[in-house]
């Protein structure tokens, strides 16, 4: 079993609240205050879960420059007062950054399904 530290538990809570605030911000017609709070909480939660150094290494890899630029550029545009345009750009950056995570997740699910379907 994987042991989770208290800081990681706090990070999971912060990231969860961040996603909730982002969802509410979009639901309430792109309220820029909720979107800004959601962005800040999500990034803070990510930093607590995997650590500040690993978070910085994740965002600032050479092959992820386009995704990082779009993600943080979208956050800046939301903070400047253009929430719809900012969220579109930020969403593109999010999917570009976490593309490899999605692929690894689908590979894990396939392996899990194969292990469940094997006759014992």
Helix-and-strand structural type = mainly alpha
Roughly how many Å is the radius of gyration?
Answer: 17 Å
Average pLDDT, all residues: 90
Strand content: under 5%
**Which consecutive residue ranges, at least 5 long each, have pLDDT under 50?**
none
Task: Enumerate how many helices there are, as a single number.
Answer: 6
Gap between N and C termini: 24 Å
* DSSP, total strands: 0
Specify the biggest β-sheet.
none
Q: Please bin the fraction of helical residues.
A: over 70%
SSE ordering? HHHHHH
The global form is: globular
Task: Describe what you observe in this structure.
This protein is mainly alpha-helical and 120 residues long. It has helices at 6-27, 32-50, 52-59, 65-80, 83-97, 99-117. Helix 1 (6-27) packs antiparallel against helix 2, helix 2 (32-50) packs across helix 3 and helix 4 runs antiparallel to helix 5.
């Amino acid at each position: 079993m994987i042991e989770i530290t208290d800081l990681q538990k706090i990070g999971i809570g912060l990231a969860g609240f961040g996603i909730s605030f982002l969802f509410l911000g979009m639901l309430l017609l792109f309220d820029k205050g909720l979107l800004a709070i959601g962005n800040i909480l999500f990034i803070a939660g990510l930093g607590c879960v995997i650590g500040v150094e690993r978070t910085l290494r994740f965002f600032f890899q050479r092959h992820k420059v386009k995704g990082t630029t779009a993600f943080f550029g979208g956050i800046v545009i939301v903070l400047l007062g253009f929430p719809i345009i900012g969220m579109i750009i930020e969403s593109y950056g999010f999917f570009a950054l976490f593309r490899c995570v999605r692929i690894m997740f689908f590979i894990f699910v396939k392996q899990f399904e194969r292990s469940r379907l094997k006759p014992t």
